[in-house]
Amino acid sequence: AQSVTQLDSQVPVFEEAPVELRCNYSSSVSVYLFWYVQYPNQGLQLLLKYLSGSTLVESINGFEAEFNKSQTSFHLRKPSVHISDTAEYFCAVSPFSGGYNKLIFGAGTRLAVHP
Amino acid sequence: GAVVSQHPSWVICKSGTSVKIECRSLDFQATTMFWYRQFPKQSLMLMATSNEGSKATYEQGVEKDKFLINHASLTLSTLTVTSAHPEDSSFYICSAQRGRWRGHNEQFFGPGTRLTVL
């Protein structure tokens, strides 16, 4: 079985400040790792993913996450946030499978960026 | 590309009635669709996995007679909440998977349907 823990339910931050959203997971098998973002009144959007290769992955809007196998973590970071980054962020894992990619989500972290 | 729609976006119904929610992949064929439930300020919980032309696989604790899932075509899956009660009020989200290859198959999410049962 798998589980995902997002350590912070809410993270308030001022505009242009750096931010880190923490995610730890537990799994007895290898997993893929994801961050999804949910803007108010919208569906989930994939922000970035780690499938294999380089442990540091980046999104097109400045977010990055690093897979740390020994610490079973996949923390999300951004060096300078914007008001428009205000949203709910979900970390998720998907166990390796034969084609059915079940996603197990964390509880979410609400990022609130203040001017 | 890879757009998933849900209809309706919100619905209010009386206790005891049944409600059907549709999930459509608009520009791709979805071999597999997933149904999730999200309570306020909580995460998404997978309810069931639906493959075109076969019975859905329900997660532990999800009543299959309560939440009927039909995946009649490669672009449409429906979730019917039968004899809905106030505790069924929630945000229901579907996602669609484009392929079924070994390795990772990305899921694309619908915008969700908010169900309120009075």
Write up this protein.
The complex is a heterodimer of chains A (115) and B (118). Chain A is mainly beta. Chain A contains no helices and twelve strands. In chain A, strands 2, 5, 6, 10, 11 and 12 form a six-stranded mixed beta sheet that branches. In chain A, strand 8 (64-68) and strand 9 form a beta hairpin. Chain A is globular and about 45 Å long. Chain B has 118 residues and is an all-beta fold. The relative contact order of chain B is 0.33. The chains are: A mainly beta (115), B mainly beta (118).
Describe the secondary-structure layout.
The complex is a heterodimer of chains A (115) and B (118).
Chain A: E1 2-5, E2 10-14, E3 19-21, E4 24-27, E5 31-38, E6 44-50, E7 56-58, E8 64-68, E9 73-78, E10 87-95, E11 104-105, E12 109-114
Parallel strand pairs in A: 2-12
Antiparallel strand pairs in A: 1-4, 3-9, 5-6, 5-10, 7-8, 8-9, 10-11, 10-12
Chain B: E1 4-7, E2 10-13, E3 19-25, E4 32-38, E5 44-51, E6 57-58, E7 67-73, E8 76-81, E9 90-97, E10 107-109, E11 113-117
Parallel strand pairs in B: 2-11
Antiparallel strand pairs in B: 1-3, 3-8, 4-5, 4-9, 5-6, 7-8, 9-10, 9-11
